[in-house]
């Protein structure tokens, strides 16, 4: 059996009982280590699970999947992912590869940012499409995410924006020369994300991302840990905050849609940079009936 096991969002104790049983019964256990990061070290997982973990980077998952799946039709093999197994297309792909080889598969679900984002007070059924925001370069500034945000905005829906991470990435020169030299890890910050959003807004000029009148909520390390951070405000307010306000990565950003309920406003108000501004913008620009 090939198990894909979700680890949740916080630490080694977030694994489900069913997931832990699968890990303990597996002959090999892989830890996918590039689509996201867990908030604890690999060694803590190994102690808690009682198993040695094999780190599976992008190269291994994308080019050496046959080795990961080796003998999984006659023995149990576990593949661990942060959050939920279906949180990344990579995991769907490896399931399809396993099934093409007639290897039985079992998915063990867990919490992910897709549902944990509800911690900010916005109701999950008011979210539209989720988008990913990649690091811009001098020559590459893709704006396709903006179209998805606009589609959500036109329906009044909130948008969850997942911020880019770069782990075990190669520079263009090292990639071209075939040198296995990797860049230091990078994690997109909230201010950088907002700067990129407003940069594309300045080109498109549809008005869906107005710094002074668009509400947003920044989230960091969501999952119930002591270092979880949630900060709400206008885009301009969030952009002006010092980096330490947002804590350590990983970070996400929610662009608030116009179908905003007064209970959402009141719940998220506790996280606001300025409560008066938060309520005022919600009332004037979003049409919320507030006391």
UniProtKB/TrEMBL annotation:
Residues annotated as domain Tetrapyrrole methylase:
1-238
The protein's matches in InterPro entries, at most eight in alphabetical order, are given as:
4pyrrol_Mease, 4pyrrol_Methylase_sf, 4pyrrole_Mease_sub1, 4pyrrole_Mease_sub2, Dphthn_synthase
**Where does this protein act, in terms of pathway?**
Protein modification; peptidyl-diphthamide biosynthesis
Q: Which GO terms describe its biological process?
A: methylation; protein histidyl modification to diphthamide
What Enzyme Commission number(s) apply to this enzyme? 2.1.1.314
For the ligand (S-adenosyl-L-methionine), the binding residues are 9, 84, 87, 112-113, 163, 222, 251
Enzymatic class = transferase
What are the recorded GO MF terms, alphabetically?
diphthine methyl ester synthase activity
Question: Transferase: is it a keyword of this entry?
Answer: yes
Q: Which reaction does it catalyse?
A: 2-[(3S)-amino-3-carboxypropyl]-L-histidyl-[translation elongation factor 2] + 4 S-adenosyl-L-methionine = diphthine methyl ester-[translation elongation factor 2] + 4 S-adenosyl-L-homocysteine + 3 H(+)
Q: Which domain of life is it from?
A: Eukaryota
Keyword terms, alphabetized: Methylation, Methyltransferase, S-adenosyl-L-methionine, Transferase
Family annotation (SUPFAM superfamilies)? Tetrapyrrole methylase
Pfam families named in the record: TP_methylase
Q: Is Methyltransferase a UniProt keyword of this protein?
A: yes
Role description: S-adenosyl-L-methionine-dependent methyltransferase that catalyzes four methylations of the modified target histidine residue in translation elongation factor 2 (EF-2), to form an intermediate called diphthine methyl ester. The four successive methylation reactions represent the second step of diphthamide biosynthesis.
Per the record, the similarity remark reads: In the N-terminal section; belongs to the precorrin methyltransferase family. Belongs to the diphthine synthase family.
This protein is called diphthine methyl ester synthase
What is the native source organism of this protein? Dichomitus squalens
């Amino acid at each position: 059996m090939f198990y894909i096991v979700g680890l949740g969002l916080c630490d080694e104790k977030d694994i489900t009982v069913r997931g832990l049983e699968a890990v303990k019964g597996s002959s090999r256990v892989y830890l996918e280590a590039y689509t996201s990061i867990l908030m604890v070290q690999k060694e803590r997982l190994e102690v808690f699970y009682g198993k040695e973990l094999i780190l599976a980077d992008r190269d291994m998952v994308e080019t050496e999947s046959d080795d990961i799946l080796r003998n999984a039709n006659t023995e149990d093999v576990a593949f661990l992912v942060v959050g939920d197994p279906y949180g990344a297309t990579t995991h769907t792909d490896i399931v399809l590869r396993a099934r093409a080889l007639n290897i039985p598969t079992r998915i063990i679900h867990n919490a992910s940012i897709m549902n944990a984002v509800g911690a900010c007070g916005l109701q999950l059924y008011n979210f539209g499409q989720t988008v990913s925001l990649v690091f811009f370069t001098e020559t590459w500034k893709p704006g396709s995410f903006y179209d998805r945000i606009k589609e959500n905005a036109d329906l009044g829906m909130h948008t969850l924006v997942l911020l880019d991470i770069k782990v075990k990435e190669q520079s263009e020169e090292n990639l071209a020369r075939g040198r296995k030299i990797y860049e230091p890890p990078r994690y997109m910050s909230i201010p950088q994300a907002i700067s990129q959003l407003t940069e594309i807004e300045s080109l498109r000029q549809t008005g869906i991302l107005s710094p002074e009148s668009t509400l947003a909520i920044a989230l960091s390390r969501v999952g119930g840990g002591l270092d979880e951070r949630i900060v709400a405000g206008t885009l301009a307010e969030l952009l002006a905050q010092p980096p330490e306000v947002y804590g350590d990565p990983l970070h996400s950003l929610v662009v608030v849609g116009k179908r905003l309920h007064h209970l959402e406003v009141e719940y998220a108000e506790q996280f606001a940079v300025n409560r008066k501004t938060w309520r005022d913008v919600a009332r004037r620009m979003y049409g919320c009936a507030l006391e």
